[in-house]
Amino acid sequence: MNNKFVYTPGPTSIRENVLLARAQKTTNPDIDKDFFDFYKNTCEKIGRIINTKNDVYILSGEGILGLEAACASLTEKGDRVLVIDNGIFGKGFSDFITMYGGEVVYFSKDYNKDLDIEDLKKFLEHDNNFKYATVVHCDTPTGVLNNISKICPLLKEYNILTVVDSVAAMVGEELNVDEWQIDIALGGSQKAISAPAGLTIVSISNDAKTYIKNRKTKISGFYCNLSIWQDYYENKSFPYTMPISDIMGLDKAVDNILDEGIENVISRHEKIAFATRNSIKEYGLELFLDKGYSNTVTTIKIPESIGALNLSNYMLKKYNTLVATSLCEYIDKLLRIGHMGENARLENIIYILNILDESLKELGFKSDKNLVKLFNKYYN
Ligand SMILES: *Cc1c(COP(=O)(O)O)cnc(C)c1O
């Protein structure tokens, strides 16, 4: 099971030093004061990477936990919540909001481009009575990247709290939580951070904390209640036993990013993504998006005569390589190259493009071009 080459838009491949960090001897994270310092230090390092002075927490649970926790903590019965829907994860926020009694208002737009800020401006002029709004930074099933730097400050002009799912963008794309006025920013360990799946990263602003404190009704549930984290350090008390090995692995993955420099990590993603997109187009395939390309994932339309599922099965059988198609109506239409985190490296992308080229041709796709050669032309 574990000898496959994995090239999906998360989970991504994991560096050996991260795996080894997880294998180290551990302490009791509930009562060893040193662990509170270790945890806080990891949170602060993440804060530096995402440019925030807000509190950062690491929660025990995969990225979805953060999405639900944000909605559980902010929603009171009958609250109107704006759901920015130009992708599958974007729309999916509504499930969590209704689950906690909120009333969803969609702002739905095309899935093949990033959100037009002028459209949102016009919409908000007529309707802006929302407690908070949800938006996805990179909506992974289609790969669209939304302009959070414009969207969140606009929402805040109307005193709407902002919740951003940056699970698939964090570390692979620029993310300035404070400057962009993101009240709750969410990340996951298994995407561009390149640690194993299992941890959620949450940053929370003072506005969001005040809002939660002033709720009229109690937050239902415990795991999804973000206020249980407040003062954990001062009180030397976690809400539950922390998954210490996971956090030791995450800490090492964060050090890898800091050692390389976050600007260098982001530009590595940019260069790989740019050359990937251009080589795919020149090769004779179409990208799904018209604009708003994320640098962490490239989404390619696969001709019906081949089929995305057929192609991914072929690549798995013949090359022992795992690639992802997409979700919902796109499941057999789109193939995704997840060049994020440790996968956003030249030696990896060359390999995947080479076997993609071979597989497509073996399945009857006609092109006299070579995908790797094209990639090299655009990569510098
Ligand atoms: C991966 C991801 C999550 C976490 O969801 P899973 O489906 O459990 O992996 C949340 N949001 C986005 C945008 C993601 O890419």
Number of domains: 2
**Which CATH first-tier class of the largest domain would you pick?**
Alpha Beta
What is the gyration radius calculated from CA atoms? 21 Å
Q: SSE string, helix = H, strand = E?
A: EHHEHEHEHEEEHEEEHHHHEEHEEHH
Determine the structural class based on helices, strands and strand pairing: alpha/beta
Please bin the fraction of helical residues: 40-55%
Q: Would you tell me which CATH topology of the largest domain applies?
A: Aspartate Aminotransferase, domain 2
Bound molecules: pyridoxal-5'-phosphate
Mean pLDDT: 97
Distance between the termini: 35 Å
How many H/I helices? Answer: 13
Q: How many extended strands?
A: 14
CATH architecture of the largest domain: 3-Layer(aba) Sandwich
Give the overall silhouette: globular
Order of strands in the sheet with most strands: 2-10-9-8-5-3-4
Strand content: 15-25%
Task: Characterize the biggest β-sheet.
Answer: 7 strands, mixed
Question: In CATH, what is the homologous superfamily of the largest domain?
Answer: Type I PLP-dependent aspartate aminotransferase-like (Major domain)
pLDDT < 50 stretches = none
Quaternary status? single chain
Provide an overview of this structure:
The chain is of the alpha/beta class and 380 residues long. The protein has 2 domains: 5-9 and 261-378, Alpha-Beta Complex (Aspartate Aminotransferase, domain 1), CATH 3.90.1150; 16-259, Type I PLP-dependent aspartate aminotransferase-like (Major domain) (Aspartate Aminotransferase, domain 2, 3-Layer(aba) Sandwich), CATH 3.40.640.10. The chain has 13 helices and 14 strands. It has helices at 16-22, 33-49, 64-74, 88-99, 117-126, 148-157, 206-213, 232-235, 244-260, 262-283, 308-319, 346-362, 371-378, and strands at residues 5-6, 55-60, 80-85, 103-108, 132-136, 138-139, 144-145, 161-165, 184-188, 199-204, 286-287, 298-301, 321-322, 334-337. The strands form 4 sheets. A 7-stranded mixed sheet has the order 2-10-9-8-5-3-4, with helices on both faces. The protein has a 3-stranded antiparallel sheet with strand order 11-12-14. Strands 1-13 form a two-stranded parallel ribbon. Helix 11 (308-319) crosses helix 12 (346-362). It is globular. The mean pLDDT is 97. Pyridoxal-5'-phosphate (PLP) binds at residues 10, 62-64, 89, 136, 139-140, 165, 167-168, 188, 191.
